[in-house]
Design brief:
eight-stranded mixed beta sheet, 379 residues, single chain, binds flavin-adenine dinucleotide, nine-stranded mixed beta sheet, 26% helix, alpha+beta
Length: 379
């Protein structure tokens, strides 16, 4: 094993593994280091599925990124020869005055995305498993759906290694030493040097880069699978979905091959230290209680027996936008914190952009909304 590489990636999860794949494919000598053995169930990417949407309630900045990400996921699926993407469609539900749905509709108009707007009666007729008040609408994007997140990381891992990347699992980076040119990272398996460093350490990024005092919080989130009436909620007929309520937002996935409806609460969780977090599902009443109450009201025939639950971590900035930027003092160090519970869908394009930054190729995207400068008081 060498001790010097063109690029070292610290954290080979969703973003890091994708970046490793893109770099290795571009002929770059890359070393990926991960504290665990990705995909794994310690960070932000487990629980089988992640939603991909193009029309975007979080803001129009994300639409071009989501479209490019979609294209790259489909290319990855072809290259690996396995199913990674189920085009179930995504149905957004909420009050007709929901600002989130309004932004989604406007973003679809601006980018000419196909979006169907349905009233409550249409929604309930089309999907008898849904029960919503008359003042609600449905916003359906049939061209999007869900990604098999762990399978996707497995695919990037396999292809990165086939293209010459090296990966050390169970190898946490302890320290980073920055030099005027290059950087050194230390681990239990030795020290490694590289001309450029990419830090994609997910929920640990704040701790690993503590001198930078990144404005990120780690939040404990849960997801749960419930026994559901398969004839109503199977993925051949039921879409991925989210429901925007006045003070709560829930999201979920149809039952895939009998796994049950998977559902989570987007807007709630417990602040947590990633090394101390309670990883037991059910440790808090809300783990199971919130989503069950939600299902009973809106998807009543999916509120069956709890089949499975999982605890996951998210990393969140104050404005819920990502951080993709260079280290303020060392331009050869790139930092990417892409989460806020909606980052996975972008992993394909973010990995490509991280590799383009290293190769000094224009990414074609405006990354200023994700700069560190935005957190400076007068920035
Ligand atoms: C419950 C939940 C639901 C979500 N739903 C969606 C969704 O529907 N759609 C969507 O687009 N996004 C969703 N997300 C967000 C998405 O999963 C994240 O944005 C994404 O997984 C973050 O990727 P990451 O690479 O930053 O983190 P990870 O994939 O966790 O990777 C970070 C890696 O860094 C490693 N690491 C940490 N510290 C070190 C160290 N010191 N040395 C070496 N390695 C280290 C970790 O082991 C890990 O493998 C959801 C997230 C959660 C938790």
């Amino acid at each position: 094993m060498k001790s010097h590489y063109d690029v070292i990636i610290v954290g080979a999860g969703s973003m890091g593994m994708s970046a490793g794949y893109h770099l290795a494919k571009g002929g770059v000598q890359v070393l990926l280091l991960d504290a665990h053995d990705p995909p794994h169930s310690i960070g932000s990417h487990h629980g089988d599925t992640r939603m991909i949407r193009h029309a975007y309630g979080e803001g129009r900045t994300y639409v071009p990124l989501a479209l490019k990400a979609d294209q790259l996921w489909r290319e990855l699926e072809l290259e690996i020869g396995k199913k990674l993407y189920h085009q179930t469609g995504v149905l957004g539900l909420g009050h007709k005055d929901s600002l989130f749905l309004e932004e989604e509709i406007q973003s679809a108009r601006e980018f000419s995305l196909p979006l169907e707007i349905l009233d409550a009666a249409d929604v309930q007729k089309r999907w008898p498993g849904i029960s919503i008040p008359n003042q609600f609408i449905g916003v359906l994007e049939l061209t999007s759906g869900l990604l098999l997140s762990e399978e996707a990381i497995r695919a990037y891992r396999q292809l990165a290694l086939q293209n010459g990347a090296e990966l050390l699992t169970h190898t946490p980076v302890k320290q980073i030493y920055y030099h005027r040119e290059g950087a050194t990272v230390t681990t239990d398996k030795g020290a490694f040097h590289a001309d450029q460093l990419i830090v994609t350490a997910g929920a640990w990024i704040g701790k690993l880069l503590s001198p930078l005092q990144l404005p990120v919080q780690t939040i404990r989130k849960t997801i749960a699978w419930f026994e559901a009436k398969e004839a109503l909620y199977d993925y051949s007929k039921f879409p991925s979905f989210f429901v925007d309520l006045p003070n709560e937002r829930y999201y979920g996935f149809p039952s895939i091959d009998g796994c049950g409806i998977k559902v989570g609460r987007h807007d709630f969780g417990q602040l947590a230290d990633p090394d101390q977090v309670n990883r037991e599902f059910g440790a808090y009443e809300s783990d199971d209680g919130d989503v069950r109450r939600f299902l009973q009201s809106y998807l009543p025939q999916a509120a069956g027996k709890l089949k499975r639950g999982a605890v996951c971590l998210i990393t969140q900035t104050p404005d819920e936008a990502f951080i993709i930027d260079q280290h303020p003092e060392y331009p050869h160090v790139t930092i990417a914190s892409v989460c806020s519970a909606h980052g996975f869908k972008f992993a394909s394009v973010i990995g490509q952009m991280l590799s383009q930054r290293v190769l000094q190729v224009e990414t074609g995207f405006d990354l200023s909304p994700f700069s560190l400068k935005r957190f400076q008081k007068n920035g």
